[in-house]
């Protein structure tokens, strides 16, 4: 079972607050993420549940970014208690038998269980420091650090480049200011 793809559901939700304004935005988000088949089953209850989950996941990523591992674990454990996992074997879409974390319930139940279980697997398998918020100001988008050397600090290459250019310019400016004394 690929739990990183489940954890990516959490990142996608945290990084898409504008998409939770209505069902149309949520459907578009799911379609862009390759989950178009699930989008047809959405209801208002799903939207409300995912909005609530997003707020809780933002707090998880903020705690991780602050280095507060205990807070990350406590928040994930609270979510796991509220949203228990019901694993099932599935063979949908012509794929071989594989595990899914839940098959029943509303769409949001499935999304929540997958996202929370995916993050829990990352934290227990790789460490809470693998969850982060982009260090490029003012971005603060969430990311998963799956690099082999724990080096990720930005949500995208674009933010990394922007931050590096800003740091370079600041060094150059400080260098000129110091040499002009």
UniProtKB/TrEMBL annotation:
InterPro entries: ABATE, ABATE_dom_sf, Znf_CGNR. It holds the Pfam family ABATE. Residues 130-172 form the Zinc finger CGNR domain. It comes from the Bacteria. Gene3D superfamilies: Jann2411-like domain. Signal peptide: none annotated. SUPFAM superfamilies: Jann2411-like (SSF160904). PANTHER family: BLL6575 PROTEIN. This is Putative RNA-binding Zn ribbon-like protein. It comes from Planomonospora venezuelensis.
């Amino acid at each position: 079972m690929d739990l990183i793809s489940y954890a990516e559901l959490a990142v996608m939700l945290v990084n898409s607050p504008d998409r939770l304004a209505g069902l149309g935005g949520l459907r578009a988000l799911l379609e862009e993420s390759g989950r178009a088949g699930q989008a047809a089953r959405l209801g208002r209850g799903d939207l409300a549940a995912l909005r609530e989950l997003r707020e809780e996941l933002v707090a998880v990523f903020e705690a991780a970014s602050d280095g507060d591992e205990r807070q990350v674990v406590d928040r994930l454990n609270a979510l796991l208690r509220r949203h228990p996992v019901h694993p099932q074997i599935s063979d949908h879409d012509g794929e071989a038998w594989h595990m899914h974390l839940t098959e029943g319930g509303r769409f949001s139940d499935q999304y929540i269980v997958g996202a929370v279980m995916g993050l829990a697997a990352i934290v227990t398998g790789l460490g809470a420091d693998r969850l982060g918020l982009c260090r490029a100001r003012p971005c603060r988008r969430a990311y998963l650090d799956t690099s082999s050397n724990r080096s990720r600090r930005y949500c995208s290459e674009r933010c990394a480049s922007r931050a590096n250019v800003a740091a370079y310019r600041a060094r150059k400016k400080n260098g000129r200011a110091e040499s002009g004394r």
